[in-house]
């Protein structure tokens, strides 16, 4: 008659009893008919009596099984997730990362890479329309501050007093005012400005007084007298008087 082998439930139950140090509930002869029980029982006995080499070999072979690998991976993932949530682990990792980051950023190759990356990012960042608008508004508001205006005025004055700056500005201005379009614009502006300037009452009065004072000078009087004694001037004056009286006569006849 064929002898029955122990079922998987009996095998697992008795292996648990062995691990807990309790007596078996089935005979060892009966249980040894299961290869799984015999192999695991031998390992447990080796561990109990200090035969670690066999345990190492079995553990290595055990951990190479696909189902064990998958189970360990899942367990480690869950454990790692729970482990990183502990406050003391968070604090230790934060301190470690801070120190590592500080040391990492001091490396020459990292410095060069970060510098190049920042340069590219800044170049792209400052080209954005919203950034340009924000910076423009900020600079405008900053330059309106009284202390900034005063500081810039002093700095500008000090800068323009430098000999090399004076020479450069002089050359630049000279070149600028020699341009034909600038000359034409200045001429038009001066013409309009002088026209408006000489219509002011205070300017008229000042010019009248200045002219009166000028013609009262002895040297001016002598010069004018000498000028009007010239034959060509006399002839021109007579011609002018003749034309003047003819026009006047024509107007009276009308």
Describe the protein's architecture and organization.
This protein is mostly helical and 254 residues long. It has 4 domains: 74 residues, no CATH class; 44 residues, no CATH class; 32 residues; 63 residues, no CATH class. 82% of the residues lie in helices and 0% in strands. Helix 3 packs across helix 4. It is rod-shaped, with a radius of gyration of 55 Å.
Summarize the structure.
With 254 residues, the protein is an all-alpha fold. Helices cover 82% and strands 0% of the residues. The chain folds into 4 domains: 8-81, no CATH class; 84-127, no CATH class; 146-177; 180-242, no CATH class.
Structural category is mainly alpha
Low-pLDDT parts are: none
Sketch the major β-sheet.
Answer: none
Q: What would you call the quaternary organization? A: single chain
Counting DSSP E segments of at least 2 residues, the number of strands comes to: 0
| Average residue pLDDT | 86
- How many discrete domains? 4
Rounded to an integer, what's the Rg over CA atoms? Answer: 55 Å
* Strand portion: under 5%
Overall 3D form = rod-shaped
Helix % is over 70%
How many helices?
14
What series of H and E elements makes up the topology? HHHHHHHHHHHHHH
Distance between the termini: 166 Å
Provide keyphrases for this structure.
rod-shaped; 14 helices; 82% helix; single chain; 254 residues; 4 domains; mainly alpha
């Amino acid at each position: 008659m064929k002898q029955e082998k122990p079922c998987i439930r009996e095998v697992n139950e008795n292996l648990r009893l062995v691990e807990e140090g309790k007596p078996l509930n089935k005979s060892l002869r009966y249980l040894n008919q299961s290869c799984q029980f015999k192999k695991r029982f031998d390992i447990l006995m080796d561990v109990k009596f200090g035969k670690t080499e066999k345990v190492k070999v079995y553990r290595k072979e055990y951990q190479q099984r696909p189902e064990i690998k998958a189970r360990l991976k899942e367990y480690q993932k869950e454990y790692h997730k729970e482990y990183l949530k502990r406050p003391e682990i968070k604090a230790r990792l934060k301190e470690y990362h801070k120190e590592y980051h500080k040391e990492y950023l001091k490396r020459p190759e990292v410095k060069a890479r970060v510098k190049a990356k920042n340069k590219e990012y800044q170049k792209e960042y400052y080209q954005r329309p919203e950034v340009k608008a924000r910076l423009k508004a900020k600079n405008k508001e900053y330059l309106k501050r009284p202390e900034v205006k005063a500081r810039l005025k002093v700095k500008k004055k000090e800068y323009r007093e430098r000999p090399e700056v004076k020479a450069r500005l002089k050359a630049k201005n000279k070149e600028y005012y020699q341009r034909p379009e600038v000359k034409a614009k200045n001429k038009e502006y001066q013409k309009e400005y002088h026209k408006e300037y000489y219509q002011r009452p205070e300017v008229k009065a000042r010019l009248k007084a200045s002219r009166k004072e000028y013609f009262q000078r002895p040297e001016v009087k002598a010069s004018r007298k000498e000028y009007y004694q010239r034959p060509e001037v006399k002839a021109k004056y007579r011609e002018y008087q003749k034309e003047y009286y003819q026009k006047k006569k024509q107007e009276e006849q009308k």
